[in-house]
Amino acid sequence: MSAHGCELNWWEAPFASGALDATVHVPASKSLTNRYLLLAALADTPSTIHNTLISRDTELMLRALQAFGVQISRETQEDGSTTVVLRPADAQARSAARAQTLHVDCGLAGTVMRFVPALAAVTGARVHFDGDEAARARPMAPVLDALAELGVEFSFADQPGLMPFTLDASSVSVRDTVSIDASASSQFISAMLLIGHALPGGLHLRAAPGHIASPDHIVMTVATLRELGVQVATDADGRGWKIAPGRLDGFTVTVEPDLSNAGPFLAAALASQGTVRVPFWPAQTTQVGGRWVQILSAMGAHVSLDEDGVLTVTGTGTIRGIDYSDASELAPTLAALCVLADSPSTLRGIGHLRGHETDRLAALETELSKVGASVRATDDGLQIDPGVLQAADLHSYEDHRMATAGALLGLAIDGVRVENIATTAKTMPDFPALWEQMAGTANISSTSSTPSQAG
Ligand SMILES: O=C(O)C1=C[C@@H](OP(=O)(O)O)[C@@H](O)[C@H](O)C1
Ligand SMILES: C=C(OP(=O)(O)O)C(=O)O
């Protein structure tokens, strides 16, 4: 039984009794999809987004945009990918949206709960925001404070600075410079950058002194804006951005595969001493998942990218521990891989993971310890000392990346069960099927591949 008294749903993770030899088509990037969708809503003309990720987080974004009067149509292509055509709200739809209080369900999606309030600020709307129980604990205050500096008003239903709240953006003013504390999430900065061009005087945004969480995601936001023609100048110290005011034309883009979600599959090559290939790996990317190439090489794998964009990772039998900073959303998978290594690892610069889908540092400390490692959460990360491996039932805390980290451990340790594997639908609804297919290339000794019930 769970803490809430309901039945837990356990997934028997496939165990690889031999080397994998698999090619895995990884679905599109959540972070890029939700950036493109939001920017398409701010454009003057329709946009076409090929290879749009369809998952819980992107469905929540699509529904939120529809509430603002955006029209969305989607088409499934022959290769199974989805093309979304998005028509921004016209004047009539915009004034209809302003005439009522809109409701946005953020689920557990950081990109929705941080980016959409910023969008609301430039539409003049009145909007009520809420989400999952766990989302009500996720930090929001820095981005809401920044919007308040522009004149947006908030009323909080429960606790100041947290969901649920109602936002009123009927009188937004021009500000020279807005400063924002990004130590708890890069998404506060990204949210403001995404709407900067739509503010009457543009925006000069500064990161307040201190740590900047997940810096790669800010680089992604700036690159995405520039790709679509928004002028962004970076301050000399790299901690500030000037966005020129201006219109945004509709655009056509193709979303890259989600390289963070490629991580567990690539790490599976090391865990099984096999080979995993991921096609359509971009030659250049701003995704933090691009770092897998260096991380997995440093940990002992052979990694190569061929001319056709196929990334191939082969496990050599050696998995070395690593000392690594700013792994951001890669951290749960990386931490699981560190458990399988032959030496200790230190992950740094990820203290803010305490405010992710769950307190990931606490969750990783608890769950990874169950399979035999000695794991300690530090101020800014994790210290992982591998031990004698043993099977365990691993909780997923409604966190897609805790679930995929559990699957990775199950591949290497016979008898691991993962709670609620369906939570992976946040960013990859196909995860269980893709994982089982991949694992099937290695004479699996798993007892079952269908979810089973246990008390
Ligand atoms: O902007 C984005 O798309 C994201 C930014 C990061 O958030 P944090 O800065 O809160 O880590 C990352 O962890 C999250 O998965 C996606
Ligand atoms: C932290 C994550 O998500 P979110 O966008 O909800 O912050 C994540 O996907 O690891």
UniProtKB/TrEMBL annotation:
Domain of life: Bacteria
Residues reported in the UniProt entry to bind 3-phosphoshikimate: 30-31, 35, 185-187, 214, 329, 356
Residue ranges annotated for the Enolpyruvate transferase domain, each copy included: 18-432
Main location: cytoplasm
Residues at the active site: 329 (proton acceptor)
PROSITE patterns, per the entry: EPSP_SYNTHASE_2
Residues annotated to bind phosphoenolpyruvate: 30, 110, 138, 187, 360, 401, 426
Stated family: Belongs to the EPSP synthase family.
Protein name: 3-phosphoshikimate 1-carboxyvinyltransferase
